[in-house]
Hints:
Number of strands of chain A: 9
Shape of chain A: globular
Distance between the termini of chain A: 41 Å
Mean pLDDT of chain A: 88
CATH topology of the largest domain in chain A: Jelly Rolls
Number of helices of chain A: 10
Strand content of chain A: 15-25%
CATH architecture of the largest domain in chain A: Sandwich
Low-confidence stretches of chain A: 255-260
Order of helices and strands of chain A: HHEEEEEHEHHHEHHEEHH
Oligomer: homodimer
CATH superfamily of the largest domain in chain A: Jelly Rolls
Number of domains of chain A: 2
Amino acid sequence: MLPIIAPDNVRFMxxxxxxxxxxxDMLLKSGRQRQLPRGHLLFAHTDPVTHFYLIMRGxxxxxxxxxDGHEKTIAVATSGQTLCEDEVMDACRGHRxxxxxxxxxxxxxxxxxxxxxxxxxxxxxxxxxxxxxxxRAHLAEVEAxxxxxxxxxxxxxxxxxxxxxxYDFSPKGFDLPYSKTLIASRLGMExxxxxxxxxxxxDHGITIQGNRVVITDLARVAExxxxxxxxxxxxxxxxxxxxxxxxxxxxxxxxxxxxx
Amino acid sequence: MLPIIAPDNVRFMxxxxxxxxxxxDMLLKSGRQRQLPRGHLLFAHTDPVTHFYLIMRGxxxxxxxxxDGHEKTIAVATSGQTLCEDEVMDACRGHRxxxxxxxxxxxxxxxxxxxxxxxxxxxxxxxxxxxxxxxRAHLAEVEAxxxxxxxxxxxxxxxxxxxxxxYDFSPKGFDLPYSKTLIASRLGMExxxxxxxxxxxxDHGITIQGNRVVITDLARVAExxxxxxxxxxxxxxxxxxxxxxxxxxxxxxxxxxxxx
DNA sequence: CGACACTTTGAAGACGATCAACGCCGGTGG
DNA sequence: CCACCGGCGTTGATCGTCTTCAAAGTGTCG
Lengths: 260, 260
């Protein structure tokens, strides 16, 4: 039995910030929950854009098929993230990607008219939406630059840091949240290249064995990755990593060295 | 002596569509005109974001300097285009690029608060802004994909088509609107690669000599470029090119073959 | 004429894609 | 219980493309 109202990870999204509980929950009521079993398509490339989506649970891959039979992954979205806000607002004819669940997922869907209407009548929501889309655009831009200026190994190292921050994993060790094939596609490289790259990263402060990732030397990672990035000082990801590490260090010292 | 009100290319921007002449001209009055001689910086990377800009005349290059001393051009904006709308709405700390005039330019600048306030109080404007930013984000995404999937030569060919559409040049022959160095940087390739590429394009329906570009065989260009692009059928640029060519053909026949 | 910015051309090298083979594992069916 | 299979990942060898470094050509402007 599913809850009528949305779970907290949706209600506390930045998109609904400053809206007041009542307004927010009213808005969320317009959404329809939809179960999406692993492997099922949410929508396909060129399908008409009919809804705006909130991911409540699970993981959705956005990808396009290139004429030569390859698949390029545009994004991998997980719970608490939105889909199609840009396609809705841009009034484009059809979906620009395919969307498929890479694990059993639940999405909340809203008709396109709802999104436009809400943006029109709730100025706070409109500003939140502007902020969300602008931020997305910025991330896309940074990624494009990374693709252009960083080597495959640097891209992977950068990605591992982001994983760690986004999923709140411990740098001391975590498991990849999805397959290497998907990650490689997400990073715009071939699986073989990705695989080879993992070995090389050992020399740069990251050890990967099977699905297990350990960040062994954050300073080395920073030197290797962030030095290649024109964003450098602004790199929020690496800043977050350093915070993580220092937190771990301090908590360890407070439990006086040896746990267990 | 400069006009107090904005010229038509600004007043008829999609951003102000549906606003009513009075509202629009009122809004535009809040802008301050600023002359920007060739080579001058409008703002620098990491500077605080203080304004939103409309380009009234001229051309502005947005670029970032990579740690290894290279410059990556993010965008080249000309009259009728906006700058920084995303940076303003994303509430980011500092500018994410440098902006420099590549020719004498005039911009209309608005304080960041003006943009946010206008979006809050004019829902039509907010929707236009959402649409603009979404569209930009989409273009960036498509470009990133192009960079990843197309060869240097295909990128250049694609770029020439876009030039032709954006500036309303004739495919029968036009001059590059800015330097090859800037174009190469814009396309994310080295000047040498760009230069070599131009020669090869002769085999694919585009002839370049000096600054002169002639699209000799549009069908060949389409086959060469669009076949590599997953957007394929949706490629509005190439559609626009075909329209251009057919218009020229029909006007030529209506003036009965030989002008001059 | 000479200085300088811009562009072209050549040769070498680095990097990632591609093709091919193999190892590993979980499931299915005899 | 074992044989077979398919999905997934690794590893090796080769190849094409783009970058890099170096040098020379073109144009403009004082």
